[in-house]
Structures are given as structure tokens and as C-alpha cells.
């Protein structure tokens, strides 16, 4: 069986879980506490980061961006990057928007301060970093709404990796209770559409010991 | 003529310049001061970041990772990502190593503290961040040497995007005088090999007003 080393609230891991589900590929999850820097895991990925995909033949594919490019090459029946080179420019641009810009400005500081410091027992939360992320998320939800008003899905007519990346990051932040949905109805409509898809079910039933999700997290009518 | 919006000491811009040169594609450089947040530039790339490639037909390709994937698709004669899906896993893994891990731990803090704060006149340098980066670079040069001792180029037998990413980041840090070459002879040998290639010439003659490069920066016998 295909194996995915992951962490429940790691956005890159969630993006790959959604990509595998959307492609109909079966896999087994193995939770990795990356901060323990386990030697056997470092041999799979010297960068020491999740996700890492292990194919049934033993092929090791480390890193969310590497995995999603690999999956579209090897299992092209359901293309997540788009059909043409220009489609792929737009899908990759928006995927990077969430994986780099949204990550840097919103999800990474929130996950670091509210979750990882607690799990790895490494210091107390920086309230200034949390306030900055709470401020920055409004700009991103406005941009998401701007896209969702002009297109069926974020990068065009079809659901693509850009939607999966956005859902991966936003669902992590939502688990921490930091998405101001009430101020952003168009972004909420987009999230409600993706949230109701079967590919999201596993993510919505995730739970991290000691860090309970808010009641609305798994609610399709949030 | 093809146009590349760039900044002389932005590693992503340098990686794309090397990729275009390696593929033999002509282009004109336009320097963009991204901190000025020029409206016409934000319309090309809402993320407000360099590099952005404009093809002769007007196609806009924003972001270094998006551009290098696009270039290998559209101009496949000289493949920089590798010939097989497994080659591409390794090339993308190591490219991400430099663009994400090396960037976060070494080049981004050094460029931010020693260059961008000065150019954008936004505060004084954080000496603790500089010390951390000076410490971290040793680990990366050791990993680079480990790879270079086992392979002809970083990701395998051929020069690939992984070498261009590494050269892009290291040449920026070298411009700032922060690569401890004397302690890392194997990494220096690899850099001497790529430094002597014609594709590096334009980068080695870059100069940023008010921030002169050290004498060894452009020297092939450093």
C-alpha cells in the first residue's frame, strides 16, 4: 500500500491528501512528529519535513510540491495542474500564492505560535506574530473572493491544485479558529463548496490530542 | 524581445536568468524595486515579487518556480528538470532545498538584513539574524559537498535546475561576502566549476549601487 508520512495540521500534507483523494489513489497515513528528527525519517527526506510519499514499489517522493508535480505526471487521468501550459502557469501561480505568501503571512506564524510550540514544548506563543497573522488573513480572503467571483474555481473553470492548496491552508487555520468567515461571505461560499466534497471528509475528522477543533470546523453549514 | 523583471540580488531572479541562458533563450532585463509596489508591476504579478517573465506574445509568467516549470515545457530541447519522472523528483527536491530551506535559513535573512533594509530604508540590521545565518550556512555547504562527492552535478550526471538554484542563492550570499569558502573546499570546487561557465558571466558583472561586491566575487580563482 502507498504510504504518506504527514502531520494532521501541516498544510502541505493536507494538500497532498486532497490531491491523492481527488485522483482516487488509495494511501495509508503515517503521522510523523518532525520535531523529533527521527533518523529513519531523515533518510527518507534529509530536509526533515512532511509530507513524504512512498509508492508501493518503494519510490520515495519528498515534499508537497515535488509530490503534486509527480502525481500529475504519473497519474495523468485527473490533471490537477491544468490541461495547457498556460492553465498550469495560473494553477502554479495560485498554488504558490497559498504555499508561500499565505503560508508566510498567515498559516505558518499561526501554526508555529498556536500549535507547534505547544506540541514540541519549545517556548511560549508570540502574541505579536498572532496579531499580524489575524490582520493579514483579511487581505488574502479578499483576494480569494475576487477570484471566486470571476471564475468557477480559483484558477479557472475546473477545481485544480490551487483550490486544494487554499483549502489545505485555510482548513488548518480554521482548525485553530482563526478564519473570520463572517466578514468574508464570498470566501465562505467557496469554502463551503469545497468542504462539502467527499475528498475533504478525512481532513474534517482529524483531531490533534490536546488541541480540540472548534465546533464549526467540521460543520458543513458553518 | 522577451523581458524579465528582476532584481540583481534576488535568488529566484538569478535562477531564472541562469535557466534562460542555459537554454540559449535571449531576454532583456528590467530591474524592479519591488518595495515601491508599482501599480503596473502589481498587475503583472499580484504577489508583488520578482521575477516575472513576459514572453514576446505578451504571455505573463510570474514567480521563479512557475517560470522554470513553464520553460521546460515550452522549450524542452535542453531539459533542466531531468529526463525521467524520477530524475525530476530529485531535481525538484534539491531545487526546493535551496529555494525554501537554504533561503529560510541563510539567504533570506542575510539579504533582508544586509541589503533590503538598506535599499528600502526600513530599519537597521538584526545582528542576531545575521549570526544565525552565518552559522547555518556551514550545514548547507556540507550537504552540498556530500552531494558533489557522489555525483557529477548536484542532482545527478547532468547540470540541472538544482545546480542553478544553488548557484543563484550562493552567488547572492557571496556578493555579500558571507560564504566561508575556505572551510568548504569541496563546495568551492563545485562553485568554481559552475562559476567558470558562460551562463554565470552576467551575474558576476552585476553591481548594486552603494553595495559593492568583494574582490573575490567575480574572480574565477577565488
Automatic annotation (TrEMBL), chains A, B:
InterPro entries: Glutathione-S-Trfase_C-like, Glutathione-S-Trfase_C_sf, Glutathione_S-Trfase, Glutathione_S-Trfase_N, GST_C, Thioredoxin-like_sf. PROSITE patterns: GST_CTER, GST_NTER. It comes from the Bacteria. Residues 84-213 form the GST C-terminal domain. Residues 1-79 form the GST N-terminal domain. Homodimer. This is Glutathione S-transferase family protein.
Amino acid at each position: 500500500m502507498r504510504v504518506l508520512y504527514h502531520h494532521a495540521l501541516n498544510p502541505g500534507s493536507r494538500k497532498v491528501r486532497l490531491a491523492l483523494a481527488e485522483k482516487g489513489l488509495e494511501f495509508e497515513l503515517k503521522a510523523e512528529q518532525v520535531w523529533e528528527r527521527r533518523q529513519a525519517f531523515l533518510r527518507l527526506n534529509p530536509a526533515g519535513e512532511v509530507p513524504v510519499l512512498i509508492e508501493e514499489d518503494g519510490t520515495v517522493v519528498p515534499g508537497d510540491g515535488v509530490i503534486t508535480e509527480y502525481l500529475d505526471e504519473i497519474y495523468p487521468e485527473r490533471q490537477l495542474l491544468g490541461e495547457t501550459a498556460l492553465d498550469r502557469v495560473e494553477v502554479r501561480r495560485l498554488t504558490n500564492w497559498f504555499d508561500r505568501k499565505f503560508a508566510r503571512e498567515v498559516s505558518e506564524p499561526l501554526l508555529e505560535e498556536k500549535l507547534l510550540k505547544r506540541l514540541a514544548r519549545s517556548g511560549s506563543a508570540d502574541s505579536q506574530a498572532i496579531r499580524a497573522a489575524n490582520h493579514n488573513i483579511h487581505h488574502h480572503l479578499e483576494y480569494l473572493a475576487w477570484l471566486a467571483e470571476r471564475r468557477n474555481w480559483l484558477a479557472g473553470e475546473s477545481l485544480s491544485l490551487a483550490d486544494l492548496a487554499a483549502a489545505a491552508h485555510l482548513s488548518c487555520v480554521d482548525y485553530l479558529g482563526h478564519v473570520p468567515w463572517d466578514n468574508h461571505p464570498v470566501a465562505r461560499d467557496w469554502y463551503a463548496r469545497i468542504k462539502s466534497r467527499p475528498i475533504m471528509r478525512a481532513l474534517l475528522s482529524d483531531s490533534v490530542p490536546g488541541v480540540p477543533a472548534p465546533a464549526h470546523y467540521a460543520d458543513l453549514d458553518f
